[in-house]
Amino acid sequence: MSKIVSQLFVSVDGVVEAPERWHFPYHDDQMAAAVAEQLDGADTLLLGRRTYEVFASSWPGRGGEVPFADRINSMRKLVASTTLTSPEWHNSTVIRGEVSAELAALKRDRDGHITVSGSLTLVRSLLRDDVLDELQLLVHPIVVGGGERLFPHDGDRMPLRLVHSATFSSGVLQLTYRRA
Q1: DSSP state at residue 37
Q2: Could you give the angle at which helices 120-128 and 99-108 cross, rounded to 10 degrees?
Q3: Residue 117: CB partners within 8 Å, gap ≥ 6?
Q4: Beta strand extents in the chain (DSSP E only)
Q5: Is residue 81 pLDDT above 80, yes or no?
Q6: pTM here?
């Protein structure tokens, strides 16, 4: 049986939007290893449409000199979208309709795990529908102050259980949760 794991960069104040604006000062060998471990452990990359479009416009032009480029470009990609009709990035398939139901069935029928990058709306829906198996947060020691947060203030209560934690020398906390 497969599992679905999300890894998100998040600020101390819960912001996940635009990590390219605040993440890089904290990127070090430990961070690179955590990201590589997540990516190398997966055989499928799951993305929401907006994240897919950002990735599809940048990753195919990157080669082996960029860490993870060959891996991301070659791996199977699933895109949750009702509007994307013809994905052009190599090895991409669109999931239409009931995404959580399709992913639950897919998890039962295979072994390799699926990693989710970014795709906040998708991650929230997978958590709500109890399809996401692990939520890995890389909490950066910065208050961003504004931007979209991982969990909205008016969201549903969702008990989580901490299954792993580590502190990087940069001050980033790696926290892995499962549903309680």
Answers
A1: H
A2: 70
A3: 7, 45, 46, 47, 51, 55
A4: 4-11, 42-48, 76-80, 92-95, 113-117, 134-140, 160-167, 173-179
A5: yes
A6: 0.90
